[in-house]
Design a protein that fits this description.
By secondary structure, the chain is mainly alpha-helical. It is about 75% helix and about 0% strand.
């Protein structure tokens, strides 16, 4: 017979629940990306950004009300906040522009290189110390990017260039976010959505296509799914050590391969897979080194 203590124990410990939520979050991000690729084949990138941002802001509205609307305008370092919004808007625009022509797995591989760029730029922009082992991992990561630069299928080099620029903008968004640690996540997400929405508002009229009923739903779901993914990841980081859940971000690549094959019949070539493996290996090296640096007094 089970004791009362055993009967009352939760099914999952906090770290286990954190791992599960991180995995769910990565799947939702991958699903969001696949939906975005599907939609930008028929609708302009500006239109997708506009409707996606409006839907996400509607979902975020109750949290904004509890947060206090006035606090959204009392921000530290306004110029850096504006720079982060520019980087985040450019990043999402480049992503959707790239997946119009490139397979999902190709674009995701370039985005997974962002931690490599962050580590390489952090000594110059944040004054962080980077030792020899981390520089070695950064060098290996850049080799992976070079290997992956041969795209899957017959596509223009322009799409690959846009993907690289987008992944760099993502890295710069992360770096500016590190310098805004006192800004609540709610405010960061709000201004990020506002920036993307304004960009969409400017661009949408030039290539507006009236969506069908089901496509209105899919366009709105982009924002909802993305918000759900962010909530899962944020909660996962509170329940479990970052060193435990951070490596799970690399499950984005297998999901991108699976969803790209299922919905778009995309099959990445051997060089892209090899480059992705090298980038993931270098990213894991950086995570391990960072964890050891934190644990070392």
């Amino acid at each position: 017979m089970l004791s009362d203590r055993s009967a009352q124990s939760p099914l999952l410990s906090a770290p286990q629940l954190g791992v599960l939520l991180m995995l769910v979050g990565m799947f939702l991000f991958s699903l969001n990306d696949a939906m975005g690729k599907w939609l930008v084949a028929s609708y302009g990138v500006g239109q997708v950004l506009l409707i996606r941002s409006l839907a996400a802001l509607i979902i975020l509205a109750p949290f904004l009300w509890m947060f206090g609307p006035a606090r959204l305008f009392r921000l530290e370092r306004p110029k850096l906040q504006a720079a982060r919004v520019v980087f985040s808007t450019a990043e999402v625009f480049c992503f959707y522009a790239a997946v119009r022509e490139l397979p999902l797995a190709d674009v995701m591989t370039y985005w997974l290189a962002a931690p490599i760029y962050v580590a390489a730029l952090s000594p110059f922009l944040l004054g962080e110390r980077v030792g020899a082992l981390r520089w070695a991992a950064i060098g290996i990561g850049f080799v992976g990017v070079l290997v992956a630069l041969t795209p899957s299928g017959d596509v223009s080099p322009f799409a690959t260039t846009v993907a690289i620029i987008g992944s760099m903008c993502f890295a710069l968004m992360v770096l500016t976010g590190r310098s805004l640690r006192r800004t609540p996540d709610t405010a960061l997400v709000f201004w990020q959505l506002v920036g993307a929405g304004l960009a969409g508002l400017v661009l949408a009229p030039f290539e507006w296509v009236s969506p069908s009923g089901i496509d209105w739903t899919l366009l709105a779901l982009l924002g909802v799914v993305a918000m759900g993914a962010h909530l899962c990841v944020n909660r996962a980081l509170k329940l479990a050590d970052a060193a435990l859940v951070a490596p799970l971000q690399y499950t984005l690549l297998p999901w991108a391969i699976i969803l790209g094959w299922l919905f778009f019949a995309d099959v990445p070539n051997a060089l892209m897979l090899a480059g992705g493996a090298i980038i993931i290996g270098a990213g894991l090296m950086l995570l391990i080194r960072q964890r050891r640096a934190v644990e070392t007094p």
